[in-house]
Design brief:
Layout (H helix, E strand, L loop, with lengths): L3 H4 L33 E2 L21 H6 L8 E3 L22 H5 L8 H7 L17 E3 L8 E2 L19 E3 L12 E3 L2 E2 L9 E2 L6 E3 L4 H4 L3 E3 L6 H9 L3 E3 L7 E2 L17 E2 L6 H4 L1 H15 L10 E4 L3 H11 L5 E4 L10 E3 L11 E5 L12 E12 L2 E13 L14 H4 L3 H4 L18 E3 H10 L4 H30 L8 E9 L5 E7 L9 H18 L6 H5 L26 H13 L4 H5 L7 H15 L4 E5 L16 H13 L3 H13 L13 H4 L15 H18 L3 H13 L15 H4 L2
Parallel strand pairs: 1-4, 6-9, 10-11, 10-12, 12-13
Antiparallel strand pairs: 2-5, 3-11, 7-8, 14-17, 15-16, 15-17, 18-19, 18-21, 19-20, 19-23, 21-22
Helix pairs in contact: 16-22, 16-23, 18-19, 18-20
This protein binds adenosine-5'-diphosphate.
Adenosine-5'-diphosphate binds next to strand 15, strand 21 and strand 22.
């Protein structure tokens, strides 16, 4: 477990960019940071300037009573949440009579299940949706929890919290402690994180409660608008509030939104400066039935050895015959768990062992029950891990180093007689909180109560001699393969509905169970994981995670013109703070770049030596992507990038459609993973020259640079650049006629080359149909 002091440092920034670079310009001056409290309305209040340590700012549980008691000295905003009704699930069940899902139906977006997250966020114990989020006259209002001063209202009703067992009513939300006194010892951080590279705009900085964020000059600050949704979690509201975002009602001027998943065509409305916390198509792993279908498909293609991390599952009514067969083969002692295909929070879940217990009248997921879980103090538990994807093409996946361990509140027994005891067999908080034996845990370091920090679990297991690094590696493997299973759907829909990849990012909650041998199994993926925080433990983990996530997301200040006229292509006189048109790279690939991509995609994975040459001549778009990836990695905080990574080459074969940018980043990672300073210094001068923005310099044109002599060593089966040019001209022709996305075209070409007998050929049913390819 990392020492607090180490964990609390900002992501390392090379010396050369420590000072605020030229992007910030003269505008970033102290004088400009006067408080603008015109609209400030702060619901929570604070007192004593406690220089808390980043995410680990929650005092030990034992101190909680005193902490809350002395309201004059300490801030801990506590709100009573509204009672609400979980959303109905019935709308989401497919008709019993519907046939197996077709490719089209799979690509058609279904609203996400009203998961623990959705249902809860809408009501009972989730986020409070405050009235003050309604917009004020200027169409924007401040966001709860800012630390920049303003009027303060004290909550009148305080719960009593004791050291071990919280007497907190379930409807109470604890928010982050934060200090509000001006001039206190809170560290003030610059509002912008400079890029590692020249001529790339900075990104907005987000903090946890123990830091203040400087105010930007008014001109830029006015652009910091956020769109509130009924499901925006408090922890997100507080984090963006500290970075001085204000709420807007308008549809085009907001920069960020943390909201519902939506149907894919809805993504078309996103402007190039806007970021929503979802990708289209992720319900392909976010719905239980789709997750199993997609993982099973991968298992068929790549074998059980690679895809053996999910329990055997059947989706009824379609798989009823297969289930019957498996049931009979398994014998009377087998246990099965039945789940509604699109539900959550343990709703509708039952463990059964008799065929007669099977409900017949509704769609159902029937899964082998993992009946030998690893137990701690006799209790079953599962893990909630936070996985963040910043981009699907190239794929970039991050895992947060901490997470939650959720225990069942009744000691485990494998007796058939106990199967109806949900406090024993289910680990959901929503289920177990109803048990009077349930114990909360406010101390992020403590191995106590029915919820622990993941880091506490690693420490506990480590003390028992368990190789926790190995478990973590296995979990990473599961995460990468599962995200790759969703990749073809997401990229097809991105191509169809999203103007720019900048607009999408997504946090996934992975639920993992460890069996008696500590083998991890995936139980489900949540596409809107709960960020509700009703204990100090939740706040410390989720607060840090959201801060790091928003920093990783890389929010940029748009040019004013972009916001006023969202689709305008007119050039702007943007300030150097903004990512306006002036410094915006062109989006379309040049013919040269297309030729290069086609050439390398044709080679296939086998020709590793040739693949290394992909970095020999870097084209403008490649420089942009590499610089973006380096910047992002530099802002990762306590997230670990798991794809690409030095060891992620082996996953390239699992992509249904090979993608050039994944190959590029993989080669880059192989070459520079242990020398980041070198790759940064390689890209810097190129960005200084503006090559990433587009150039006609032959040094960055692959075709010109690549004389045929460079390929003399190539074997016969290697496609020469001139051959590649022919292929691409054909593709360009196709594109002109049908706008086929080139990665897909190349994917189809690639599959044709491999032939049907190839083990990596796409299974026809899983390949996007031709409609998916038209953009
Ligand atoms: P929900 O979305 O309703 O939470 P899950 O699939 O996560 O549904 O299941 C709820 C709980 O049931 C899990 O947290 C876990 O404790 C238990 N569970 C689910 N599937 C299995 C399984 N195959 N074997 C053992 N326990 C399971």
């Amino acid at each position: 477990m990392c020492e607090a002091a180490d964990c609390f440092s900002l992501p390392p920034v090379p010396d050369m960019c420590l000072s605020l670079c030229q992007h910030q310009g003269p505008a970033v001056e102290k004088d400009a940071f006067s408080l603008d409290s015109t609209n400030a309305e702060i619901r929570s209040t604070g007192g004593e300037a406690k220089p808390t340590q980043r995410s680990y700012s929650i005092p030990p549980a034992a101190k909680y009573g005193a902490l809350v008691g002395s309201m004059t000295n300490q801030i801990s905003a506590i709100h009573l949440t509204r009672q609400g009704q979980p959303a109905s699930t019935s709308d989401f069940f497919p008709s019993l009579s519907s046939p197996s899902p077709t490719r089209e139906s799979l690509l058609e977006e279904t609203p996400p299940p009203p998961g623990p997250e959705h249902a809860a966020q809408a009501g009972v114990e989730e986020e409070e949706l405050a009235d003050e989020l309604a917009c004020s006259d200027d169409d924007s209002s401040s966001i709860t929890g800012t630390s920049s001063g303003g009027c303060i209202t004290l909550p009148s009703c305080l719960p009593v919290i004791t050291g071990r067992r919280s007497l907190l009513p379930m409807t109470v939300t604890i928010e982050e402690p934060m200090s509000l006194e001006p001039g206190d010892s809170q560290e003030e951080q610059p509002a912008l994180v400079p890029s590692l590279f020249p001529r790339i705009p900075p990104t907005l900085y987000f903090s946890t409660a123990n830091e203040k964020v400087e105010l930007l000059p008014a001109e830029q600050r006015r652009l910091l608008k956020w769109k509130m949704s009924t499901v925006t979690p408090n922890i997100v509201k507080q984090t963006i509030g500290r970075s001085h975002f204000r709420v807007t009602k308008k549809s085009h001027d907001w920069l960020g939104c943390w909201g519902h998943h939506m149907k894919s065509p809805g993504f078309k409305a996103l402007g190039e400066h806007q970021k929503l916390n979802h990708f289209p198509g992720t319900f392909q792993i976010g719905r239980k039935d789709r997750l199993w279908r997609n993982l099973s498909k991968m298992q068929v293609r790549f074998g059980k050895q690679e895809f053996s991390f999910f329990p055997q599952t059947f989706v009824l009514p379609q798989d009823i015959k297969l289930l019957r067969k498996a049931w009979e083969e398994g014998g009377a002692k087998q246990k099965w768990i039945i789940k509604p295909p699109a539900s959550a929070r343990g709703i509708g879940i039952q463990v059964i062992h008799k065929w007669s217990q099977m409900p017949r009248k509704r769609p159902l997921l029937v899964q082998k029950y993992l009946d030998k879980p690893y137990l701690i103090s006799g209790n079953k538990f599962d893990l909630r891990l936070y996985v963040y994807v910043t981009s699907y093409n190239p794929l970039r996946v991050y895992m947060f180093s901490d997470g939650l361990v959720r225990f069942a509140s009744c000691k485990y027994s494998s007796s058939m007689k106990t199967l109806s005891n949900k406090f024993m067999h289910l680990t959901n908080y929503s289920v177990n909180k109803k048990n009077s034996e349930y114990q909360t845990n406010s101390d992020y370091k403590a191995c106590q109560g029915h919820k622990w920090a993941l880091k506490a679990l690693w420490q506990y297991l480590g003390s028992k001699g368990v190789n926790t690094t190995l478990i973590w590696e296995k979990i990473k493997d599961i995460v990468i393969k599962t995200i790759i299973a969703s990749e073809p759907y997401v990229n097809s829909l991105m191509k169809l509905h999203v103007r720019t990849p900048y607009s999408c990012h997504e946090l996934f909650g992975f639920d993992i169970l460890l069996d008696e041998n500590l083998k991890p199994w995936i139980l489900e993926v949540n596409i809107s994981p709960s960020l509700h925080s009703n204990t100090g433990l939740d706040v410390s983990i989720k607060g840090q995670m959201i801060k790091d996530l928003l920093n990783l997301a890389g929010f940029r200040i748009p040019s004013r013109e972009d916001v006023v006229t969202p689709c305008s292509s007119a050039s702007s006189s943007t300030s150097s703070l903004c990512a306006g048109n002036g410094e915006r790279p062109k989006v379309d690939l040049s013919a040269d770049e297309k030729v290069k991509r086609a050439f390398y995609l044709k080679q296939g994975e086998a020709n590793r030596d040739l693949m290394h040459t992909v970095l020999d001549v870097l084209t403008p778009e490649e420089i942009r992507v590499l610089a973006e990836s380096e910047d992002e990695l530099n802002r990762r905080g306590e997230f670990e990038r798991v794809f690409p990574s030095p060891s992620s080459s082996r996953y390239l074969r699992f992509f249904e459609c090979p993608r050039y940018l994944n190959i590029l980043l993989d080669e880059w990672e192989q070459k520079y993973w242990n020398n980041r300073a070198k790759c940064i210094s390689l890209l810097r001068p190129l960005c200084q020259q503006g090559v990433h923005l587009g150039t006609s310099d032959p040094a960055h044109m692959w075709c010109k640079y690549s004389s045929s002599s460079r390929f003399e060593h190539n074997r016969q089966d290697v496609v020469s650049p001139s051959r590649a040019r022919v292929v691409v001209s054909h593709q360009l022709w196709s594109q002109r006629n049908s706008s086929i996305d080139e990665d897909h075209q190349q994917c189809l070409d690639h599959q044709q080359c491999l032939g049907p007998a190839s083990p990596t050929a796409c299974c026809p049913s899983s390949r996007p149909n031709s409609d998916d390819l038209i953009s």
